[in-house]
Amino acid sequence: MVRRGLLFSVLFSTVIFSTFNAAAQDRKYINLPRPDSVKTAPFSEAVLTGDTLYLAGQIGLDPKTRKPGATPEEEAKLALDSIKRVLEAAGMTMDDLVSVQVFCSDVSLFDAFNGVYRTYFHENYPARAFIGSGKLLFDARFEVQGIAVRRHK
Asked: Which own/partner contact pairs does 76-81 have at CB distance under 8 Å and 24+ positions apart?
């Protein structure tokens, strides 16, 4: 009886360790072209492991001026467009997002952000947090990060 339990424990541990080890090795780093001002930033836009994509925070900077959008709505659109580009680079869509965190320098912009956010989804919305953050890099109003899971059809 003890031998059978020990054998089961060893086999179970081997299967679990192999699964975690394979998942740890199965990573794809998503890096889109960056402007010179952030080219050396030490992060990837996303990391894909299995069917799960972990997206780094994206802020709504105008690609030409490298400044936040002129209005909260424009900036929200720029940030969400950036998230969308990263998802597309991984072969996913906005509807694959399962969790989103929005960091906002001024929570009174909640409604302005939501007006734009709603237009990016066709089905159910992902789980989301809207977090008052204080000052963000480049004087941005919003930084959006998320987790997406590839859906199999």
From this structure: 76/112, 76/113, 76/116, 76/117, 76/141, 76/142, 77/116, 79/140, 79/142, 79/143, 79/144, 80/116, 80/117, 80/120, 80/144
CA 84 – CA 5 distance, rounded (Å): 49
pLDDT by position in tens, the chain (length 153): 555 554 444 444 444 444 455 555 689 999 887 666 556 678 899 999 999 999 999 999 988 888 999 999 999 999 999 999 999 999 999 999 999 999 999 999 999 999 999 999 987 999 999 999 999 999 999 999 999 999 887
Task: Answer for the pair 82, 55: CB distance below 8 angstroms, yes or no.
Answer: no
* Domain boundaries, position 43: 27-149
φ, ψ dihedrals at 56, nearest 5°: -70, 160
CATH code for the domain in which residue 101 is found: 3.30.1330.40
Q: Within a domain: residue 19?
A: no
pTM exceeding 0.90: no
Tokens of 132: 């008052």
User: If you ran DSSP here, which 8-state letter would residue 61 be given?
Assistant: B
Please indicate, yes or no, if residue 75 is contained in any of the structural domains.
yes
